[in-house]
Design a protein that fits this description.
Elements: H1 7-16, H2 20-40, H3 43-46, E1 57-61, H4 72-83, E2 88-89, E3 101-105, H5 110-131
Antiparallel strand pairs: 1-3, 2-3
Helix pairs in contact: 2-5, 4-5
């Protein structure tokens, strides 16, 4: 029976904490990608989002998107299927309130963030309109 991660993996994890130069090299791109998404997406798409000051993702609140409560799992599945943008439902991170939230990584390339913004902006109005039918 094992109750912890294997020793070689633990040593590898410790070594990763010393990779400051590599981590610092990604920061400007993460900041730029975050700022692009925040500026490029409709304000109500992320709603009353959590601050994105120390991570590589946005945690958005979907409650402002529609008068009808949106199910985040259905929403992110539709966005992947129809807009070809992947996010994850907040349910994966919060069992109580997560059904109204999504988590969107901005760790990808800047070009991917531009595409994601364009695709979401093109897709969102038709998706919301389909909900009211």
């Amino acid at each position: 029976m094992f109750i912890s991660a294997p020793t070689p993996n633990q040593y590898g994890a410790l070594a990763a904490f010393d990779c400051y130069d590599e981590f610092d090299a990604h920061l400007p791109r993460y900041q730029d990608n975050r700022d692009r998404l925040l500026a490029g997406l409709p304000a109500e798409f992320l709603g009353n989002h959590a601050p994105a000051d120390g991570a590589f993702y946005l945690y958005g609140d979907l409650t402002q998107l529609s008068k009808m409560p949106l199910n985040a799992t259905d929403f992110v599945n539709a966005m992947l299927r129809e807009a070809h943008v992947a996010c994850t439902s907040g349910v994966d991170f919060d069992q109580e309130q997560g059904q109204h939230h999504l988590r969107m990584s901005y760790a990808g390339s800047t070009e991917d963030m531009k595409k994601a913004s364009r695709r979401i902006n093109s897709w969102l109005p038709s998706y919301l309109k389909s909900l009211s039918i």
